[in-house]
Amino acid sequence: VQLVESGGGLVRPGGSLRLSCVTSGFAFSDYWLHWVRQAPGKGLEWVSAINIGGDILNYVDSVKGRFTISRDNAKNTLYLQMNNLKPEDTALYYCATHPFRSWGQGTRVTVSS
């Protein structure tokens, strides 16, 4: 099982980033998937989840209306579109299979002016 995140970087407040998580080694279309983040010096925070069909989307309150999770089952890829980014979104972002059994290595997002 392999999950590889990309798309992180340095962005100004109000900016946007799109994270990708390319996966292999398991039946991608059979799993719910999650985005989880860890801010500097803090614990893990669940951010978002998506069901198998991509029509049930869940978000932590702090990102609702700004982040959008999606998936492409044909490409075995999970996405997180992040708009109107805030400094408090600064974190290492991980993708994970449900129930958090397999994780990627993370991609770093820094929101700063």
Tags for this entry?
6-stranded mixed beta sheet; 113 residues; mainly beta; 4-stranded antiparallel beta sheet
Structural class: mainly beta
Strand order of the largest sheet: 2-10-9-4-5-6
What portion of residues is helical? under 10%
- Strand tally: 10
Rg of Cα set = 13 Å
Number of helices: 0
Q: Report, as a whole number of angstroms, the end-to-end distance.
A: 37 Å
Proportion in β-strands? over 45%
Instruction: Please outline the major beta sheet.
Output: 6 strands, mixed
Low-pLDDT stretches are none
- Round the mean pLDDT to the nearest integer and report it: 97
* H/E element sequence: EEEEEEEEEE
What is the molecular shape?
globular
Question: What is the chains' assembly state?
Answer: single chain
Describe the secondary structure blueprint for this structure:
Layout: E1 2-6, E2 9-11, E3 17-24, E4 33-38, E5 44-50, E6 57-59, E7 67-72, E8 77-82, E9 91-97, E10 107-111
Parallel strand pairs: 2-10
Antiparallel strand pairs: 1-3, 3-8, 4-5, 4-9, 5-6, 7-8, 9-10
Put the structure in a nutshell:
With 113 residues, this protein is mainly β. It is built from no helices and ten strands.
Characterize the structure shown.
The protein is an all-beta fold and 113 residues long. The chain has strands at residues 2-6, 9-11, 17-24, 33-38, 44-50, 57-59, 67-72, 77-82, 91-97, 107-111. It has a 6-stranded mixed beta sheet, with no helix packed on it. The chain has a 4-stranded antiparallel beta sheet with strand order 1-3-8-7, with no helix packed on it. The chain is globular.
